[in-house]
Amino acid sequence: MNLMRQVIIDLRKEIGWVLLYGMLTAMVIITLVLAALSYRQVAAQSGAIGRFVDGNVSIVQVKEKAYQLAELPHKEADAPKESMPLEEYYAKALSPDGNAGTYAVLYGYHGYQQLFLLLGAYTDLTPYTPDRDADVVFAVTNDIKEQAEKTIQIGSSEYPLDVLPANMDLYYPLGGYITAESGMLQNSLFVFSKNYDLIRELFPESSYWELRDKSAFLPHLVLKDPSFEDETLLQSVIAGSGSYAVIQSMEDYLQSTEASGVRTHRTYLSFYIASALVLIGAMLFNIYRVLKRKIPDYATHHLFGATERFIFARMYLFSLLYHTLPVLGAIFVLKANEMATPFHISLVIFVVAATAFILTAIVHSSFSARFEQGLRRE
Question: Which of 5, 195, 202, 357 reaches 20 to 30 Å from 253, CA-CA?
Answer without folding.
Answer: 195
